[in-house]
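Progress against Task 2.4 (sequence-to-structure conversion) is shown through the following example record, which the project officer requested during the mid-term review.
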Amino acid sequence: MSELYSKFEAYLHQELSPAEMKAFERELESNSELKADFELHKSIQMAVDTQVRAESLETIKNLKSSSVPYAGLNDGTGTGSRKFLIPVLLGLILLGLTLLFMSKNSKVDKDELFLAYYTPPSMNIERGGANHSPIVRTFSINAHKMVGLEKYEAAEGKFRECGKGGNIEARECQWFEALCALKLGRRAAKEMFKEISLDSKNPYQDKAKEILKKM
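Structure tokens generated for the chain above:
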């Protein structure tokens, strides 16, 4: 059970490799009992996360409401615990600002990389062609439309579907799936780019090598 729990957590936090994620998704599709267990675990995890956030906000609210009047600090009449409270609060605020600054910089970097490397294929895939099957063409069209609407999770899923296979169209979709994962801050994005950079048949091999150097 603990091994299964670890696998659920690794999948939810995007800690599996692309191959492991796809294998796990296939396993969910073929095993209804496993899928039910996973959905239950996911719903419980979401409820726990929501409760933790609520309790954290309540704790911060209580700390703020119990702050010490400055007069008490100046005349030395404040208790030791209250005198200690303000430095702690200031430290928490400083830490929060630092994390916010770091996350903003990280987000800008991801966005810049995505914008620099996301370019839909020059071929008009809506009209089809020898290099695109009807199924892949449909998923690709819809996926790129989702990107245009800034619905990156939906686009990621569609690129994942058309990225199954070893043909050139699938390899194109793998590249765009990796870009969406990067945009969404997925931990698995780097592994996706690594796989592409090692695939000599992928038309985006060189670009994958470039983006890895910048990540």
